[in-house]
Amino acid sequence: MYSHVTSDGTMISYRKFGSGPEQVVLIHGWMVDGRVWRKVWEKLAANPKLTILVPDLRGSGESGRSDSTYTLDRYAEDLVELLARESVSNYWVVGHSMGGTIAQKLISTHPSQVRGVVLAAPVPASGMPMPNEARIIFRQVSTNAETAKTLLAGLVAPGHETLADEVFDISRDVDPAAISQAFSEWSDADFAETVNYSGSVSVWYGEHDEYITRSFLQRTMCKFLPQSAIQEIAGAGHYIPLEEPDQLISGIIRLMDPSLH
């Protein structure tokens, strides 16, 4: 693991694979850390033209904890600072779930630096409204392990039940304050009007994801990113990078294809 100290003094840990000219940043989502990308980075790292950066967001995994700065803006700024440390000014972004929301922050604040975006089961920049009963359950996961297990079991597709256990184990290494604060950040996100990006956007959703569906993405994301190519990943629930990584990797490679020859 590599590490970088941000402008507010928080240590961010990250993985780095390869040394190719094409830089790819993999941004994990809520209540997990960079390990959710393990199946993706293992295959992408085999391409000699790629350099893969996989951070643990603040409060997650091996990165430092913070008292009150688990916001989308701060997450994005941490990545901008990390990329500057690595002397990276032109890169591809792949974001999953809340990581997709952070990716949308990056293209709203630094659009000229982002060559293209792949979003896997992303929460749109316009947020994700849900019934109050659901919000109560989501809020309980930071303090109630059984609620967290139940929620995660419902987010994976049939046949991937053991992956829910893996995600739960990863979630034990996330600061409960980050889980609680970040939930409000992504569910109540409201910055769609600031997203002005003309690059390529590839959006993927899982066949069995009950929250991030094609119709939901068409009603939301397509309004402010009309160039979005929305595609289904068969056999996946919400945790696409773990459940069906090969289909996602193919989508990443297709988006980048002209740069890989």
Describe this structure in words.
This protein is of the alpha/beta class and 261 residues long. It has one domain (2-260): Rossmann fold (3-Layer(aba) Sandwich), CATH 3.40.50.1820. Helices cover 38% and strands 18% of the residues. The chain is built from 11 helices and 8 strands. It has helices at residues 38-44, 72-85, 98-109, 132-140, 145-153, 161-171, 176-187, 214-219, 221-224, 240-243, 245-256, and strands spanning 2-5, 11-17, 22-27, 50-55, 91-96, 114-120, 200-206, 229-233. Strands 1-2-4-3-5-6-7-8 form an 8-stranded mixed β-sheet, with helices on both faces. A hairpin with a 5-residue loop joins strand 1 and strand 2. Helix 1 packs across helix 11 and helix 5 runs antiparallel to helix 6 (161-171). The two termini are 30 Å apart. The mean pLDDT is 95.
Radius of gyration over C-alpha positions, nearest whole angstrom: 17 Å
Strand arrangement, largest sheet? 1-2-4-3-5-6-7-8
**Tell me, what is the CATH class?**
Alpha Beta
The main β sheet shows up as: 8 strands, mixed
Q: Residue-averaged pLDDT, rounded?
A: 95
Low-pLDDT runs? none
The number of helical segments is: 11
What is the count of structural domains?
A: 1
How many extended strands? Answer: 8
CATH architecture: 3-Layer(aba) Sandwich
H and E string: EEEHEHEHEHHHHEHHEHH
What structural category characterises the helix and strand content?
A: alpha/beta
Distance between the terminal alpha carbons, to the nearest Å? 30 Å
Helix content: 25-40%
What name is given to the CATH topology?
Answer: Rossmann fold
Percent strand = 15-25%
Identify the overall geometry.
Answer: globular
CATH superfamily: Alpha/Beta hydrolase fold, catalytic domain
